[in-house]
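Slide 14.
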Amino acid sequence: MASVEKVVGVKKVRQKDPDGWDVSMPLPGDIIEGVAELASDDDSFIQAKAWSELTLFLGKIAGHFIWFKVRRGESTLKLRGYVLVERRSNLQKRFVVRAASDERHLAVIAELTLGRCTELQEMSRRMVNSGSRGYNQMGLQYDWKMKIGTYLPDSHSTVVSSIVFMPLTREYRVEATLVRTMAWFSAAVSSGIPLVFVNIQTEQINNLERRNTSGKDLTCSRQLDGYVGNQSAQGVRLWYLPGIAEVPLELTPEPGESRFGINIKRTDEGFVSIYSVAKGTAAERAGLVHLFEEANKSKHHLVISRLEGKSLLPSTVSSEGLIYCCDHADIKDTLNLAMERSESVRLHIMSWPNQITHDTTGLIGAAAALMPPN
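Slide 15: predicted structure.
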């Protein structure tokens, strides 16, 4: 009788390369015993006793990441996945769980017998433990805090930066958005902004988010967050390095000084550029006069990439064609407040090819200039 008892489980996985399977993913034969939005404790899981009850719950939370409690052999595991709904007809729905660690790994949920789950679990075990997967792997402890503090320009730095270009109204072909993206990048580099191209990709953007033109509230739905159907459009994300390095500087005022000694302006592409440096100020003592003169000679802008660790780089181009970037007034307020308190401020400057700089990394106390090893 046990072999014909019905349970809810993973019927199959739609992924061409089973070598990518691992135990953290939903695998064929996994028996789903419960689901929860948070995996804080076992009490938070809703039991998946019947197929009808589970499908009702999954239908309500489709399009979100949730936790699944699954039975695999003698073990019980908690797996995280993204719930998708596929409509086979007006009355039939198929529920698919996408693995959190690999968007290609799509597990189809269905009602199965215990006997069939046992067969599928054995097949999954052989696939995961297959010799073609190479040697077994082990976990390695890593001092993340020390590495971040030593090898990044700032503890909040992602090193690479990106900007998302929304499709304009009535711009239905991604090629048109791509043209605008590369025009922006080419114009920035030609004007003297020392950007380094890294990568470019298309990106699914929810139409509701597309209409939100607030730079602070704007959020973009990436491809790995699921397909949104007719309510989505394709944008373009451009990845770049803010210069071949980010040079750290610390501006420290002396008693009696009323300003740090820099004047800034916004470039057409949304970057914050220093257009003058006063001598006899904190800016000169930090080395900005030297950098400013060198930038002028090489026909580069002296661009501030970070202020107090926070990025000043443009982040989004809206569907109206507006470039969203850090508010000019906020930058001035930060500088004025620090001056009123006689506090230092930290800047990061974009470095350009063949730049000759004096040693500034010691001011921050870390190897903050991101450069390849000699």
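Speaker note: Residues 174-191 form the longest helix (18 residues).
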